[in-house]
Amino acid sequence: MENSLKKWFSLVAMSLGVFMGLLDVTVVNVALPTMQKAFNEPFTQLQWVLNAYTLVFAVTLLIVSKMGDMYGRKKVFLASLILFVIASVVNGFAPSLLILDIGRGIQAIGGAGMMSLSMALVASNFDGKQRGLALGILGSVIGLSSASGPLVGGLLVDAFGWESIFFINLPIGIIAVLMTIRFVNETPSYGKDQKIDFIGMVLSAAALFSAIYGLIQKETHINLAWTDPKVGGWLILAVVFLGLFIFVEAKVENPMMNLKMFKNINFIGSVLVAFALGSGIYAFNTYLTVLMQNYIGWSAFDTGIRQLALSVWSLILGPVVGILGNKLSKKWMIVAGLLVSGAGFIFLIGQLSPTMGYAQLWPTLVMIGIANGIVNPVLNSAGLEGVAPEEMGMASGLLNVFRQFGTSFGVVILGLVEANRYADVVSQHAASMHLPEKLTNGLITAGPFSGHQIAFSDALSKAPFAHELQKVVVNAFDKGLIQICYVAGAIVVIGAIGAAIFMRESKEVKEVIE
């Protein structure tokens, strides 16, 4: 009984770490305007508070996963947790934007370790039906932390200032550290007699850095062509580094990543679902928040409250689907969940209008929330089936890498879809309104996010054409969001088809490492 209770306390410790690590990916969004005033820096510079975390998080995921597999996942998880808390405190006291950016990068190393190793630790601390339930609960925490960022951030920033979004990690982190030391069981050090594959680590980091940085460049400079060296050059470099990584891993005696993992077709299916989840659902949430705050006009706090219709399902469904995953087909639960999210996107297409309110929006939030609440927990459990114990850290790291890369990819692709449709609509209406060419070009160049600020600025609001122009900008955003819904819907449907084709039932999954 005591041992069983210890296991569940260990799950609490790991859940606290994951909650902090993922919350800090989204919580900063609502604090950026306040930070901009505090540091008196242009918004383009503030973006690196987000990008530094995203970039380092993705780049270090596989490295810390491998270190955990080699030297003990509890040790590396604990070190990551402590690093994350220390960096959080440094961020709260940051005297300049540069220090904050560096602190965010260091914080991301800790976040990557907590995120990638938590799943593997749960898988090794639990077994049988309890493992499915525990991974389901962890999945609910993952979904809740990602979705509740705007609400938590809005509350903290309004009440205590932007520094509080970092200082809040100190008490939570101390509790998580003490609980990890006391309750989490260590895993064997599978690689204690192996040499570290430094070349593999460098090449994997270089490939991920180049890919994510290229996408960030496209996101922040949306008018740059894919063939521009600032974008395409980095993406080509990523492919080169990936090819070198695969070549090296196939040759070295103790590779960082055992490429035989990809002979497990169930794992390939899980990776495809992770990418679809990131690029379809998580990336869409970025534009959903813009719709709610910029175009409908709700505050960050009010937006967070209304988004509970999306995020609460992760908390409710995680344990339930963890149990059901032991009785029902994980594969078909994932397929059903992704199709539900697709239905949510299609429903929103019929509801979008300049006068829409919460009554037209909440059904979509519920459908996407239910989908995330089903898919995320089951994916964690299904993805680790058939993976050798010594590879579980790397496997969970890969799932997180594809989820994170999918999100970065999706934000860029959906952003391009929105920007192109927005530009078309503004151009069409500008001609009939006889707007000055300079103003039209300014609205198009500013894009759907900053274009709203221009159209509703005090200076333009006094113009005789202001009201009609504002209607055009809102309509242009809505038209773009309709296109986003089609693309996001297609992504999750492709993910569902991929799951149906590649994923296997539990009894069909075989060990791929002999």
From TrEMBL:
SUPFAM superfamilies: MFS general substrate transporter. It is found in: Cell membrane. The chain crosses the membrane at residues 12-33, 45-64, 76-100, 106-126, 133-153, 165-184, 196-216, 231-252, 264-284, 304-325, 332-353, 359-379, 400-417, 481-503. The keyword GTP-binding does not apply. PROSITE patterns: MFS. It is a multi-pass membrane protein. Residues 10-507 form the Major facilitator superfamily (MFS) profile domain. Keywords: Cell membrane, Membrane, Transmembrane, Transmembrane helix, Transport. NCBIfam families: efflux_EmrB. Belongs to the major facilitator superfamily. EmrB family. This is MFS transporter. It comes from Enterococcus hulanensis.
